[in-house]
Design brief:
Chain lengths: ~260, ~280
């Protein structure tokens, strides 16, 4: 898998005139990589992800997955939103299998795939539960399992843990790393939590605001097998400070610019 | 703080913070105890009946000439029994129900695809919303003369009246329900490989199912109203017709009996829809 974003521009027409949400975005994600993008609110993070998913069309530039230009959404790019997007009338198992059903996978094969991914996210015993019976963290795990079940080339996540409390968030981060190691899926995740980005990813794109551009690419040199103890290591702290500094300078500039 | 209390000149106000006083009856947006709830439900029926009883008995004993205008509950019950044993009531009910269900069924059948199309596609909305917006402000009973001119006095004009009277509201309510389907749910479906038709049939339709049932429930009430109006104007049988015949012979007891039957059947249909909703949509509550 190779995702290539080149010269991407996105402009929205609003009542107060055009807004440039993204400008000159160039980035790439390689097979099996875990990459994060961080940026202040309004820096166009969600827009970037939606463009990659094919839910928006770029004003200029293009997104290519394995050399094929993205022209619309498809199951090769799985998506997990911040807000819970489970189908409320379907059980957990039905939710996880829904994408496969849409793609026309036979029932028997589907059931195997569903039980495998329910196992991956540790929700096998909740297969028959309805979404309203789950906690926020569990709902998000179902959403992840549902996206993974289609075995996408890349998993796109827009602040998936943004609505969770600190403890649940930590567990979910750990959990996501395990899933990533187990499935070797490429992941591109959006977050405004710098610590989360440093903890999870191998590479970080730092975005500026208005218009959203890539300020810096930070390659992290941390062990791939990690648990939350790593957050106390000086190296981890240094990365955190460096990126926080970039964002801070950025927001100070934005303040001056008005 | 202390200074402001001096200005207010009232120690009590500033020393004890103002708190909401406790209540059971007046709690906004909260449940009340089951027992109280049932008491109130019984009172809601019992008080009007008791009032009716008292007033009608009073008139019957003191102003006998006027008693004909307000039958007592007892006389109404007798009238009900008489109509029932003569088999008239059952025939009337059957006719009215047949008209309501035929007209409503047609409207229900068409309003779902129409409402979904209009809710999901701005193109269909632009095409249909203006004309529906105008037609729905034309009172359905105003169509009765035309329908009689076109289709005579048979079943067709009555069924069509119900159809016209419920189609547009049903469609607009379903359209609104579709607009409330979260955009992210639809987008998630696309990223799972869903096609547009699949989104319509397998995401939007199940999502709005409870709203469809509820729209049916609300519009069933107006269908039930319309059939009575249609029968008052032109019919040979039906509950509406029964009432208009009773009027001609000054049988107020039969009018009351007819009204009560109409109300009870309406209530029964309403409760049936609620039950259907409860049984089939446990995910929504
Ligand atoms: N559909 C739209 N129409 C008009 N403007 C939009 C639209 N979507 C996004 N924008 C604008 O584009 C800019 C970037 O929005 P975006 O949601 O991508 O930011 P974000 O980085 O995800 O922010 P947050 O951290 O708050 O989620 C914002 O200024 C926003 O107002
Ligand atoms: Mg966002």
């Amino acid at each position: 898998m190779h995702l290539e974003v080149s010269q991407l521009h996105k402009q929205f027409q609003t009542r107060n005139g055009p807004i440039v949400a993204l400008k000159d975005i160039n980035l790439h994600i390689e097979e099996g990589e875990f990459v994060c993008a961080v940026g202040a609110s309004g820096s166009g993070k969600s827009t970037l992800l939606r463009l990659i998913a094919g839910l928006e069309t770029p004003t200029a530039g293009e997104v290519r997955v394995d050399g094929v230009r993205v022209t619309g959404p498809g199951a090769d790019r799985g998506m997990v939103f911040q807000h819970y997007t489970l189908y409320p009338w379907m059980t957990v198992a039905k939710n996880v299998g829904f994408g496969l059903k849409l793609q026309g996978m036979p029932e028997k094969e589907r059931r195997q795939r569903v039980s495998y991914y329910l196992d991956v996210v540790g929700l096998a015993q909740f297969a028959k539960a309805l979404p309203k019976e789950l906690s926020g963290g569990m709902k998000q795990r179902v959403a992840i399992a549902r996206a993974l079940a289609s075995q996408p080339k890349i998993l796109l996540m827009d602040e998936p843990f943004g609505a969770l409390d600190v403890q649940t968030k930590e567990t979910m981060q750990q959990f996501l790393l395990q899933v990533w190691e187990r499935t070797h899926t490429s992941i591109f995740m959006i977050t405004h939590d710098v610590e989360e980005a440093v903890f999870l990813s191998q590479r970080i794109y730092v975005l500026t605001s208005r218009p959203g551009t890539i300020l810096r690419e930070v390659v992290l040199d941390l062990p791939s097998q990690k648990d939350y103890h790593i957050k106390r290591q000086p190296k981890f702290q240094d990365y955190r400070e460096e990126i926080m500094g970039l964002l801070r300078g950025e927001s100070a500039e934005a303040l001056v610019a008005g | 703080m202390s200074q402001s209390s001096e200005f207010l000149g009232n120690e009590n106000v500033s020393n004890s913070p103002r708190m909401l006083s406790p209540t059971v009856f007046w709690r906004i947006a909260e449940d009340i105890p089951k027992k109280l709830s049932w008491t109130l439900i019984v009172l809601s029926i019992a008080i009007p009946i008791a009032l009716w009883w008292l007033v009608s008995e009073y008139i019957a004993t003191h102003y006998e000439v006027y008693a004909i205008f307000l039958p007592t509950p007892l006389r109404t019950l007798e009238a009900l029994q008489r109509l029932w044993s003569e088999g008239i009531l059952l025939t009337d009910i059957a006719y009215s129900m047949f008209r309501v269900f035929s007209g409503f069924f047609l409207a229900a059948l068409i309003s779902v695809p129409l409402g979904v199309l209009m809710g999901a596609f701005a193109s269909w909305r632009s095409l249909l919303e203006p004309i529906i917006g105008i037609i729905r402000y034309m009172p359905a009973p105003a169509f009765i003369p035309l329908l009689i001119l076109y289709f005579g006095l048979g079943e067709v004009p009555k069924i069509l009246l119900i159809f016209i009277g419920t189609l547009f509201f049903n469609t607009l309510m379903i359209m609104d329900a579709v607009k409330f389907v979260p955009k992210e749910l639809i987008e998630t479906t696309y990223t799972l490989g869903g096609r547009r038709l699949q989104v319509l049939l397998q995401v939007i339709l199940p999502y709005i199912y409870p709203s469809i049932i509820d729209a049916y429930r609300v519009n069933m009430a107006s269908a039930w109203n319309l059939v009575i109006v249609a029968e008052l104007v032109a019919a040979t049988e039906g509950l509406g017709k029964r009432i208009s015949i009773a009027q001609r012979f000054l049988r107020t007891d039969e009018i009351f009996a007819g009204l009560i039957v109409i109300g009870l059947i309406g209530l029964a249909i309403d409760l049936l829809f609620r039950l259907l909703l409860k049984l089939s949509c446990r995910w929504a509550t």
